[in-house]
Structures are given as C-alpha cells and as structure tokens.
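Exam review. A common question shows you a sequence with its structure tokens and asks you to describe the fold in words. Practice with the pair below. Do the first one on your own.
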Amino acid sequence: MKKLFAFIALIGFLSFQVSPVLAQNEQDNSTEETESAETPDNPDAEEDQEGADSAAAMDDAEPMEDDAEDDAAIGLEEEEVEEEASFHQIIKQKFIDGDPGFMSFVVIALILGLAIAIERILYLSMATTNTKKLVQETESALANGGVEAAKELCRNTRGPVASIFYQGLDRYEEGIEMVEKSVESYGSVQLGQLEKGVSWISLFIALAPMLGFFGTVIGMIGAFDAIAEANNISPGIVAGGIGVALITTVSGLLVAMVLQVFYNYIIAKIDGITNDMEDASISLIDMLVKYNAKNR
C-alpha cells in the first residue's frame, strides 16, 4: 500500500515538473509562428511594406516643409525690422560722426524754430475769420440796434478784425476822424501780434547753415592737423576728415530748408489777414459815415 502511494506521488511530481516545460515550448512555438507570419515570404509583400514606409516618410516631410516656409517668413520679417532699425542707427551714427558738439546746436535750432512756427500757425488759424460775414452782421446790428449792438457783436467775435471794429465803434462819439485814427493805431497793434516771434524763425533759418559751415571749417582744420601729424597725405585721412566735416553742413542746410517752408507759409498767412483787416477797416468807416448821416 505504501508502495502504491509512493508510485502515485512520483507520477504527480513528474507531471508537475513536465507541464511548465511543455508550456514554455508551446509559447516559443507560438512566438516563432507570429514572427514568421509578420515576415513576408514573397517580394510583393516586401514592396508593399517599402511603399508604406515611403508614404509615411513623405507625410513626415510635408510638416517639415511647412516649418521651413514659416521659418523663411519669420526671417523676412526679422530682416525688415533690421532695415528699419538700421535707418535710425544711420541717423544716430551720422549725428555722432558730425561731432555732437556742433550737431547739437543745429538740432536745437531746428527744435526751437519748429516750436515757434507751430505756435504761429495755430495762432493765425484761430485769428482767421470770415471777414465778409462779420461786415454784414456788423452793418445789420448797426442798422437795427445802433452802435451798442454792433459793439456787443464785435466783443463776442474772435479775431483781429473784430477787435479793430470794436475799437473804432468805441470812439464813434468822438467823431469819424477819431475812429479812423483808432482803427489805424489798433490795426498796427494787431499786426504786431500777428508777426510776434516770426523774426526768431528767420534767425534760425540764417543761423543753422552758419553753424553747419562753422562745424565744417573746424572739421577741415582737424583733417589738416591729422595730415600734419601723420606726415603723409593719405586718402583715408583726408576723406574721413572731410566727410565728417560736411555732415554738419548738410544738417544745417536741411534745417534751414525745413524752417524756410514754415516761414513762407506764416508770412503768406499774415499778409492775407492784414489785407482782410485793411478792407474791413475801410468798410467800417463807410458804415459809420452812412450811419452818422442817417441819424442827423
């Protein structure tokens, strides 16, 4: 009986030892079959596989081309930014090359001249009024409400013509001759206010080229000093000194040309307002003469 149990135990032990080995063998066999199935045995399957790989490579190349185009566009934008920045850098470099000591005076002349010109343009624009309309309204007020109504109208109207009208109407009680003198005197005052500061613009127009030429002369002296020190007339030494010297001249001439344009515009504006004041003054005298004759 003991022998029977021992035999059964031996068979069970052997079966437990053999079953893992069989399972391992079966797993190895299945792996080999899978690999053999994945590996094509004919050339057509290999060509299909190569076609699939090439298509995948083309798909990967398309995003790379898009990225290259984007990089090119970004590069163009960066070049444009560099060009814009280079323009400012050129201006800055020219300013430094022209000797900041002299170039600063030229720039100050430009800034002050432009400030005065802009102020005069704004003042003259506000001083410009419809003179014909003012004459008609003054004549109507004088006929309907008398001198006081005309004075009130002129007091509430801006511009030098209205101010001259008010001064003339204010002297009406003293006679027509006093009105004429008052209009003439106050017209000169208004003309002086219109021309206020214009002489400074003409000064900067004349001063800017002088400053440029002065810087040029100083630069030429420096160039000849460099030649004397080097004891050699080298084209590099001469050209460098002359080039730096001429920058101040060019800057001064540019400033003078810009200010000259503003100056001529302002003078033309003043002449137009002055003509309107003279015509309106004559119209005012005629109105008062008619009003005086009517009320006698």
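Now try the second one, then compare your answer with the model answer below.
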Amino acid sequence: MRNQRMPLAVVCGALAAVVGAGLLSSLCHAGDPMTAPATQPAQPLPGSVSDYHGFEMHTFTAAGLKCLVVAPKQPAAGRPWIWRAEFFDHRPELDLALLGKGFHLAYIEVGNTFGCPDAMAKWDEFYTLLVSKHGFSPRPAMEGLSRGGLYIYNWAAAHPDRVSVLYGDNPVCDFKSWPGGKGKGPGSPGDWAKLIQDYHFKNEAEAMAYTKNPVDNLAPLAAAKVPIIHLAGDADEVVPYLENTAVLHERYKKLGGEIQVIVRKGFQHHPHGLDDPTPIMEFILKHTAAPRTLGSRPEPK
C-alpha cells in the first residue's frame, strides 16, 4: 500500500484526543503572547513600590534595564495600558487621566537611543513580560513625545497587530529632520552623531538613505488599521511640523489609514500636552474599547 499523507485536521484531532486540547493549544502557541491561552492567573508586579501622583508605581529591572509600571486603583477589563516612550512624567496629564480609567502606565528606560533596533529588541522583551506574565492587554496604546515618536512608530511598524492606537505629541517622524537638521530646523549635531552610531550606520550617507523612518514605513500600520492621533504645534522650531506630522498625516491618509491631528496654531515645540487631555483620552478609549478588524499585513519581525 502506498503511503498516504493524513489531512492536518485529522492529525490535530488525534493529537488532541491523546494529549488534551488545552495542552495541544499551549504547545501550538508557546512563546507568542498574542495567541497563547491564559493558563494561569496574572502574576503580581515585581519590584519596589512608591507613590506616583497617588498611584502605586513598581520599579524593577527587566531586559537588563530599569522599568516603571504604574498601576491603577482598579484595573479595567482586559488590563489595558499605555506605553510611554521617553520623558517619563513630563506633562503626565494624559497618563493620569488614563490611570483613572483603569489603564496601567508602563515605561522601560532604554535611554536616548532614537528607537534604534537594539532598543526595540529590549522593548520586545518588556512587552512579552507584561503580556505573558502579568496579563496585560496584547495591544497597548503607545505614547511618543518628541523623539519618543521614533520609538513608538518603529516598534509599531514591526508589530502592527500588537498595538491598539498611537499618540504622538510633536513627534519626530523623520530623523533626517531631527536630529539630522537636514530641513528647516537646526537639528542637533551631537544627537545626530549618536543616532548614526546607535543605528550602526557606516556613515551619514547610509543614515540619509535609510528607508524605515516613520514617514516611510506606514504601510504595515495602515494595513493593520492602526488609528493614530497627533498633537502638533504648527510653529514647532525643533521638530518642524511640515517635515514631520504634516508629511505623516498626508501619507497615512493616502494609505487609507485613520489619523486625527490636533494642530495648535502658533505653538512651538514646547509646551507639550494639553491641560485638559480629554480629546486625546477619548480617542484612545474609543480605539481600545472595541476589537479592530485587521487587514492583510506583513508578519511582525
């Protein structure tokens, strides 16, 4: 008799009958916090506890780096969280408002590394820890102030199915603009030299030819239907609006993506944030409350 290949469904059914459907599912999804079934309760947050504007902040080490996680008084269903990149506690109005709505607030101190690949690998470890071990939602909201925009966009473009919404506050969307200073802004020569080093570029020419700045790498986010909101001053002298948010807004709309920009007429790079963060909070709440219908997209790298 000739050897015949059994249909996959038959093989899976036979395995499930032998080892149990739950164990089979765990084996199939091991190592993937997006799809792994919850087999045990979420573990308590580690580290020392201190006060953060009336909330408990846990300080601990993960991925070899200092991490901060602030817990709400009553976590919302699904344990949503906002992941802040850079400048922790600067203009915390939005973070505090979301803590009041049951969100956790998370931050990992990768330093001034401009969202480079090495820093993003640390973010991967932090994400896996919070989702797999501590039961956080697999799709955090992401917050990037200024250069923090590079971090949230780079990580989200690599993992578009692991993000609920992006919020940028005068965000850097093209490092040629800042710190490169290759447009109308002055840039920052010291930061530009460090960025070239952190990204392991051979020279400035290689940095200038880079094709994965946020303004150039929006297709994965649009395909995954990731909603975006920006707060931007149209007189920003550090991270020029026309070279960053305006370009990203136009390109994301052309890709069919959902994006809202709150333009502050006459405002420069500072001050960040809104005294009343309600418009941004409501956008985030709207897009974390309902599941997103995903389109076709590349697999996360």
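Model answer, second protein: Residues 43-288 form a domain with the Rossmann fold fold (CATH 3.40.50.1820). The radius of gyration is 21 Å. Full marks require stating both points clearly.
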